[in-house]
Amino acid sequence: MLDHRKFHRHSALILGLVLAWVTFSVYGQVRDHEFITYDDYEYVVQNPLVRSGITFQNLARAFTTAHASNWHPLTWISHMVDSELFGINSSAHHMSSMLLHILCAILLFSFLRKATGAMWRSFLVAALFALHPLHVESVAWVAERKDVLSCAFFMLTLLAYRRYALNPCIKTYALALFLFCLGLMAKPMLVTLPLVMLLLDYWPIGRLDPRHPKARLLLEKIPFFVLSGASSVLTLLVQQRWGAVMENIPLGERLINAFHSYSVYLFKTFRPYPLAFYYPHPLDTIPISLSIGSLLLIGLITALCIRFYRTLPYLAVGWFWYLGTLVPVIGLIQVGSHAMADRYTYIPLIGLFIILAWGTGGILEKWIGIRPVLVTLWAVFLAGISTLTWWQVGYWKNSVTLYRHAIAVTTANAVAYNNLGNVLAIRGELEQAEQHLREAVRLNSFNAVAHNNLGNVLVKLGRIEEGVLHYRKALLIRPDFKEARRNLESTFQLTPHQRIMD
Hints:
This protein is mostly helical. Helix content is 70%, strand content 0%. It has helices spanning 2-27, 40-45, 48-51, 56-64, 73-86, 90-116, 119-131, 136-140, 145-166, 170-184, 193-202, 214-219, 222-241, 251-270, 288-307, 313-326, 349-366, 371-395, 399-409, 414-427, 430-443, 448-460, 464-477, 482-491.
């Protein structure tokens, strides 16, 4: 027995090393990547809190500031640590995120292996998590450090909770609660973790029996739900204060987009191409037939999972993991102007991966003869998604490649056109910049930032009157747009007492 356990541990160690090596092979190219103008500069490059590194004052400010529509002090501290050690070095910041992603994959493998005893199924889930293209955005985008950091604490919390479930004591309970608190301070999307813990009580931990009254299982989750509630309220207040909550999209359209997003994420799990850093909100352009189809698909899968929850418990756990962990970012409360985002699937897809891995295992238990076929299919699938992930990581090499790719694979992407035009303007390629910025304002005439950027380009080209017109349009859309007002005043070289009246 001891030899068997030793062999099992050694096998797990080897698989963990293989997982780390393969993931590094796919993502290692990020060491040559630049910062992206989309949030990386606001989060890191031009953020005084991060640039000045670790100080007592900065540590205090990390907990008291709500920069960039977010309160996630632990994420700020992680960026500060990188800055303290490596300076504002894009390679180091990218490598830190990649190493956190590898850690998340290993922790996921460890949790599932310990909770279920199924080594190869757990490894398959971890491999899918580590290598899936939908997760590239969370890893290759420095501004999404909060994804990989919060996921690490998510997994550590589950490991601590499993230990508590097997041998209840106040120390392991307090440890799980503490780790959960840290995870919320990295990214508040972890507010659904108490629901995941309830799912795991059913399977694979198996606490829904007479020895564990349901009332007790709910009662012990109350502190976790309290933390989730407090984090949710704080996040909503911060995002409203910064104007990140979009209140101009009707509830009906948000609901339609939510169900549509659930089905699109599900579809992209099996066909993760093409992907983009930004997906424009479809507003009222989703066909009614597609909306009904999405609703029926979600309803049908949910009904099947409920129907077989006793005989195939992993179906219900995996599916409700997927549905539940997406709730904070599915768009019921619209934050930002995008319809969906690949990064939102970072933790939710684990539920679908569990269904795939344990479903495959169930098939093998009934039909052992098809093992070579299934193993071959999975090897081909993993090789395929690894290749797609390699390509997708390459698009994040710099701002120009990222924005050009988004324009190529999406339609009416005003944000991508604006961002590309602005980068080209910084490079001095003014004629091309003008073309892209004009397309941005054509697609979205209420984009004040695009009007301001176009104004800057036109002024540099010597077309002052046209530039002033776009500065005025930007101020008409956003009267409090300080940058546009400064640009307008500097164009006319006004004194502080001579202000243009709009």
